[in-house]
UniProtKB/TrEMBL annotation:
Pfam families: SpoVAC_SpoVAEB. The keyword Metal-binding does not apply. This is Stage V sporulation protein AE. Keywords: Membrane, Transmembrane, Transmembrane helix. The chain crosses the membrane at residues 6-26, 33-50, 95-114. InterPro entries: Spore_V_AE, SpoVA. The lineage of its organism: Bacteria, Bacillati, Bacillota, Bacilli, Bacillales. It comes from Domibacillus mangrovi.
Amino acid sequence: MIAMFFWAFVIGGLICVIGQLMMDVGKLTPGHTLSILVVAGAVLAGFDLYEPFVDFAGAGATIPITSFGNSLVAGAMSEAEKHGVVGVLTGMFEVTSSGISAAIVFGFIGAIFFKPKG
């Protein structure tokens, strides 16, 4: 159990370090960094490499933004098997809609209760 926590911490930290290096050394904007990490997760999922990564690292692989790309591809692939080409588009939205909806709702609630300083 301790090893599971260790690897989740190390792998999640390494993903964050990669993102930070992309911004600091590569001088990429946060938007570019975010996009690259999402695409990297999607590419790994497309080659069936992200799920073994999740099995090994647990939350260290499911919490960072790379898992969003994995979710997009996993949803698209599962729906494509059921519904063909149309399933590729609907699958991406079906799998990720709850997370996006929650972010919108909680962001709105946070904006109601907290005022930015400024």
